[in-house]
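Our preliminary data section would be incomplete without showing what the modeling component actually yields. Below, a chain of 395 amino acids is followed by its predicted structure, encoded as tokens that our downstream tools consume directly.
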Amino acid sequence: MTPGARIQAAIELLDDIIAAARTGGAAADTLVARYFATRRYAGSKDRRAVRALVYAAVRRAGEVPASGRAAMLGLADEDATVAAEFDGSPHGPAPITADEPCAPAGIAPAWLEAVLDRSQVPRAGWPALVARAPLDLRVNTLRVTVAEARAALPDAEPVPGVPDALRLPTGSAIERHPLFLDGGVEVQDAGSQMIAFAAGAEPGMTVVDLCAGAGGKTLALAAAMGGLGQGGGALIACDIDRARLSRLAPRAARAGAEGIVTRLLDPGRELEALADLVGQADVVLVDAPCSGTGTWRRNPEARWRLTPDRLARLVASQAHVLRVARALVRPGGSLVYAVCSVLDDEGAQQVAPLIAEGWLPEPLPVGTPRGAGVRLIPAEHGTDGFFLARLRRPC
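Predicted structure:
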């Protein structure tokens, strides 16, 4: 592909991504994969170049652009080499005219920037919310030691404060490495690992992962518990999404994490399936569904999908999940609440009612204090953005 053809391909992909963001369609990564699946003539260098152009344009535009061309013109406005390819050559984009729209640069839609301000996310750190992220790994201590993993991955560096975390440079590939294939490491952001670490799961405990999804944190909890077969205890992974929860079993087998129990929950009737666990759990982890404002560096188009109404629905859902979770915690047990969001509506304000009822906040060794918990943001902590709180139920 010529440089101009690459830019035209990026424009076409951006049109698809913008339309999907407006209608709740497929994610950008899926759309990119579909696009190239039908264009076998594009070589690996072409695919990398087009993908880089697409994501540079997505990261730059805070508001949803009017079109893919408008998004790419935003890049052209800042990069003369991109602008030079708008020359009307075969398979390339038409020349730029003086009056056509150009997507303005920004961090997020205006209404969402106001919510970031209200949540006191420092503006100096906003660009890091959409910057490219490194590749973080969790060493699966059921398979290998951290020292063994570092020896197998010479480019990896430890992440301070996260015992089992290793970090590879941005753009690294791990999926075909023997260590990954054999279950020795899992791809997991260091901030996400901090959440599992903060749960304090130990052998012999009864631990519930209430919003387990595909089980990333469940597997970290299993490792912390030393393997259920030897250490005893019980680890119950729950979710309302059958497809996502079904992905846990093969992942657990690969990781050597035996004995995890899964429970598919019926939305609105969760406690019916958890009746035997009411008041019994030593630890309940709630990694609640959220806006994902802390993961924009991995999914930058997600900020175009969020609306005030959707945020309100998520906040209501989080409050419901917390009501379910609190019922499961034994007296003296702990509830760990986390969201991959930097917004107070989903974080500090969600756990404030529990504090008012006498639940006791426990100190955490990570993040910046925020309400009864802590907040992690990329600019300050080098992780995805999270709110995290650990609360102890009064005896």
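Residues 129 and 297 are 6 Å apart (CA to CA). The two ends are 67 Å apart (CA to CA). Preliminary results of this kind motivate Aim 1 of the renewal.
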